[in-house]
Write a structure and sequence with these properties.
Blueprint lengths: L10 H9 L6 H13 L12 H12 L3 E5 L5 H9 L5 E6 L2 H14 L5 E5 L2 H6 L7 E6 L6 H11 E10 L14 H15 L3 E6 L5 E6 L1
Parallel strand pairs: 1-2, 1-4, 2-3, 4-5
Antiparallel strand pairs: 5-7, 6-7
């Protein structure tokens, strides 16, 4: 095995990356700060700062109009994608917490994109299974409970249009994917990665972005 890049991401280099990405706007930055202030113990569930511009870029790149998000938390990723959608685009945002998503609702309103977001407070599998079965989803972002990810995948892939994209966060899961004896969420991510890599309906790449990001395109 030849490792092609040994660049270490120091705090200074990470700041350089952020400085050379599209900057967060006032509403986005305020939501990130509020999340760390209100939920310091679980703020790590928020998508990394550099992922907001990346998700927006992917929405525009795919020409997405119908996006599904599994795992909304306080809504930073939702906001980033909604801002990149055309005016008639929609995100179905799935979460089970009214407390967390209340902060997202405030930010979406402040950014003027609340009408593009259909927040559904219910188990995500219920929401997915209630959707039409035919291919109609342009892009999906999966960032929720890791032990259910294969089930989410199996509901999403048939509903994804050809050329559509599934973006999955935390696919390195803090490095625990290397542990063959992993349990719980780490085991879920390991199983999901194997499942995704073996699925011939899709073509996928696992990228070492933040905590691991997998991009999967429907053939």
């Amino acid at each position: 095995m030849t490792k092609g890049n040994s660049t270490k991401i120091t705090d200074e280099l990470y700041r350089y990356v952020l400085d050379h990405n599209p900057p967060l706007d006032e509403v986005q930055r305020g939501l990130v700060a509020t999340t760390y202030e209100k939920f310091p113990d679980v703020a790590g569930m928020q998508s990394a700062e550099e992922q907001g511009p990346l998700l927006a870029f992917l929405v525009r790149l795919t020409g997405a109009r119908h996006v599904v998000e599994i795992g909304t938390f306080t809504g930073f990723s939702t906001l980033s994608m909604a801002q990149a959608l055309p005016a008639d685009g929609r995100i179905v945002a799935c979460d089970v917490s009214r407390e967390w998503t209340a902060y997202g609702r405030e930010a979406w309103e402040a950014a003027g994109v609340a009408d593009r977001i259909d927040l559904r407070i219910a188990p995500a599998l219920e929401t997915l299974r209630a959707m039409p079965r035919e291919p109609h989803v342009d892009m999906a972002y999966v960032d929720a409970d890791k032990e259910s990810q294969i089930a989410y995948w199996e509901e999403l892939v048939p509903r994804l249009r050809p050329g559509g994209l599934i973006v999955t966060d935390n696919t390195l899961f803090h490095g625990t994917v290397l542990d063959e004896a992993a349990t719980g969420s780490a085991a879920g991510v390991r199983a999901y990665n194997e499942h995704v890599a073996a699925d011939t309906r899709m073509e996928s790449v696992l990228l070492a972005i933040s905590d691991g990001l997998t991009l999967s395109r429907k053939r």
